[in-house]
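Minutes, project check-in

Agenda point 3 was the complex the collaborators sent over. CS summarized: two entities, 803 residues total, and the question is how they sit relative to each other. Sequences were read into the notes so everyone works from the same version.
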Amino acid sequence: MDISFFAAAVVAGTPLLYAILGELITEKSGQLNLGVEGMMLMGAVIGFKMAIITGNPYLALLGAMAAGGFGAIIYAVLTVTFRANQVVSGLTLTIFGTGFASFMGQGLMGEIVPPDMKLFFADFKIPFLGDIPILGQIFFNQGILVYSGYLLTIIAGLYIYRTQIGLNLRAVGENTAAADAAGIHVSLYKYVHVIIGGVLCGLAGAYLSLVYIPSWQENVTAGRGWIAVALVIFCKWNPYRVMMGAFLFGGLDIIGFRIQKFDIHISQYIIDLLPYIVTIVILILVSVRKSHSGSAPASLGVSYFREER
Amino acid sequence: MVNISKSFGEIKANDNITFSVNYGEIYALLGENGAGKSTLVNMLSGVYTPDSGEIYVHDKKLRFSSPGDSIGSGIGMIHQHFKLIEIMTAAENIIIGQKRSFIIHRKKLKKTINSISEKYGFKTDPDKYIYDMSVGEKQSVEILKVLYRGADILILDEPTAVLTPQETEKLFTILKKMKEQGCAVIIITHKLHEVMEISDRVTVLRRGEVAGTVNTSETNPKELTAMMVGKAVDLSIDRPAILKDEVMLEVKDLSLIDRDGIKKLNRVSFNVKAGEILGIAGVAGSGQKELCESIQGLERRKRGEILFRGEDIARLTPRAIFERGLRISFIPEDRLGMGLVPTMNIVDNVIMKDYYLQKSLFLDREPARERAEHIVKMLNVHTPGIYHPVNQLSGGNIQKVLLGREIDANPDFLVTAYPTRGLDIGSSHLIYDELNRQKMKGVGVIYVGEDLNVLLSLCDRIMVLFEGRVIGTVDASTATKEDIGFMMLGGKEC
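CS then shared the predicted structure for the full assembly.
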């Protein structure tokens, strides 16, 4: 294995990073949104379409974020306002997003991202940091969206653990009744963070269609949204662990191509299975031992109604 | 509060209630379960909105549409079920929902909390996690939370329900300090002696209406009880003599190690005679729950023998015990978790224990319906009907349904854990009477309790547990509260 493998793992892990962060923030508010895959697809297709139409990378990303956010709003209205079942609503959102992407993606098949936009997303070296041996080559010779991913992770960590709003957010997810009794506007917190989560998922999708592939193909996410949902558990709802989870699975994602180079004959299908098998193993390991820190927000998936007896 | 009314579905919880509280006063709201005390203060704290009526604070008319509004006007509520987040520290819990600063300054925060603690005499470590705390400590955090916000109207909903006598004593000292500082304190309770001890004025609620307001110094427990229940009640508990000298249940060297490898029971041995009530006392978590569940057959990881009329039942499941014709009834601590299915109605809850004895494909609810009606009548359960979901009943009525079902099964042996927890005087005495009735029938009874006065007057013998060990067994007719209190803390029999 050479350094380029690890650098590629970071690239492959970046869409996961955004999606995991998005779902993590959503779950911190006590909402389990299983629509990650759907919101990613919505972001991917709208981002790509905006890129083709406008040729402007900012508009493309903005479009993707809006699309993901829009999906999240649908989910939030259903689950927060109407207190619909969260699991069913999330699954519905995924089905909706898949259909939405197929529909909007008609005629985009085979299109590629405009060259000047590729330039915008191209790798560049960060001064000083990029010169660190090995680590610099792996982490600091990347594209703009990879760097913003690092930054977002750190911001999310500070936000959740160091600010008053972050504390309130955790309170909502842990014990909604307690948060409500403390005067926190529960629905507002839920809405805002579900939508932030959707925006990040949209961004994750756009990264796939605009940077990773970068052309349009049906089902660009290929189950990454589901892996992201599982990885939130792997990361134990801690934003600082998200990078580790994302890049580990980024590595698993691309390991197949690398193994072929070494002339090792393992069925491609087995290798493709790897991320999913590891996900299952991790879920089992995580659920065996429960501790106080590192478990799910206690009110996760439970709808809240103040006057319920 | 003026002319407040509130209904839940068909149940009218509060009907035209008016009361007022002054600063520098401790004010008690007294009433039986389901009298509407909690509902009333929940409206004051903004959790519920009244159907009609007005709320004035400082002579200003206010409308609370959320708890935030209520907090803003200086009202602090300490709920019966603590609203704390287990995985956070005391300090974090205290500042939840605050708007003072964007970034959390931990050091400054700690200082502020410590200075409040000092002022009122709390001993709370701001960095301690809630899950590591005892019930008393948790309550301190709840009160600190309210004080940190600068609330000057404090509402405590059944604050002593889960406290040990010592903790209650501490709480009352703190409340008196608050009163001296000029706070208005509202305390909701159904314990008469507490009202007499701490309050200045008391309003009695009965079935959602005000039964009367009196100055505490001008009244006595008898009068208050009469107001609460609507008639004079005898407050003494009978203790009929044991009929025969026959050992019914014998436990030998029972040990239990839980999943985390902690010894919950350590070589526990005792016996219960037919027609005897054996009381079990101990600080919460001394192994009472594990002991009850072992006898019932719910715990598998145990060692030792449990002889029921000479037959070892230690390895049997609850159903296997039932099928051998041994009727052991169990009234668990966690009524809605283990005892009943909260969303099902009374009939369906009654049928659960023996539905599988029916041979037909479909359930015949007729016998269960008759039994449900019988239970409702026998124990005077307040319910809109036997087809009403049990979780919509008040705590006392839920307990009555559970007790009714277990007694209706004609048990040979009855294990009860805190059967009167959260129950008012009227319901509690109903349950004591029922236990005595079972005793007269020759049923062996285990009564796990926390109120030492009740243990001493109801039980024949009292066994004290400490950290899973039997510290000693005393004769209830000669022992004193102090003896038992001493043993509960691990001291040997004196």
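Noted in discussion: Chain B touches chain A through 35 residues (CB under 8 Å).
Follow-up: revisit at the next meeting once the mutant set is ready.
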